[in-house]
Amino acid sequence: MVMAAAGLLAASIVVFAPLAMAGWHITRNRVLFFSTIFFIILAAAVHILPYAPSLSRLVSSFHSTISSLVLSSSSSPSSNLGCLHSLYAINFFDDSDDEEKIRWAWTRKRSAAISACKFRELHREEALEFLSGTWIVVAGDSQARYFLLSLLELLLEDPAPLRSQLFKFHSDFSHTLEDEHLRVDFFWAPYAANLTSKLLELQHSGNGSGSSARSRSPDVIIAGAGLWHMLHVSDPSDYGASLRDLAAAARSLRAPHLFWLNLPVLVPGLLNTAAKREKMTAPLLSRYDEELGRSNLTLPGGDFRVLDVKEVSSLCGRGCTGDGMHYASAVYGALVQIMLQTLVLIRTSS
């Protein structure tokens, strides 16, 4: 670098000194002028060409430094992770009374901070490429099953043939996309205690040997339970104890990405049985939410990131539910995209 600078200085002296002389004599001797110009060209070539590689590296280094500064200011790990707090800035809209025609989008009226995050819904090919080689486990109650349906609707060109298999009464489900080496499993686990057993089972299988998918832990786990407990047990303290057991089981896993589907907004007037209307009340729901907060299951004290069904269902409103507890596909579709965007932000920040 020092030699390149010295060479450039010497070349400048050789170039500009004769040029000044040529200007002084131009009106007196044209032959001298053109001779001087020829000399300047030769001298510049002799002095500068040996340092061309170093100068090229100098320019390249400068460009790389500027590029790094621009990238760090626009997509640094801290700014990427900060975008996680803005993922729920979404709107729902529809053109009819049909809840299946409801659509969603990240809000158009964004603050500068949200606009800088540049959230963008992943389409099928992008999602398949991003999730290639991934083992995804979805476990829990009916909310988890609807979440998985929305994920399959994104990943598959025609998920209809699998819908009947997915919604078999209280059944598990598995599907593999061979070309992408992408595996999706669903485990029916309506109680938190069921989820604890399933996580311990997955941990045991992940400690095995062999080349099959079962010889490793899942890469992503999405879990959620509580609706059945509200209806059939109706004991917030018992629910909290089972969540703490689940939190302990999660700590034994080999660090997959863990997501928790919390309870949705319930609309008592739309619940379709007398037992649900009697037991699944707003005060009881509030106590269940409090138990989740005290359980250390979710961040910052636990290992699960919340996929906020309550927030998204609230944004969509009571017009998005027909039975008071399950919501339009747009709600679960939004949650799928929020999960994917979370994984994108985490990956680009690591």
From TrEMBL:
Tagged with keyword Cytoplasm: no
Molecular functions per Gene Ontology: acetyltransferase activity
Entry superkingdom: Eukaryota
Keyword tags: Membrane, Transmembrane, Transmembrane helix
Signal peptide: none
GO biological process terms held by the UniProt record: xylan biosynthetic process
Listed transmembrane segments: 32-52
GO CC annotations on file: Golgi apparatus; membrane
Localization in the cell: Membrane
Protein name in the entry: Uncharacterized protein
Originating organism: Selaginella moellendorffii
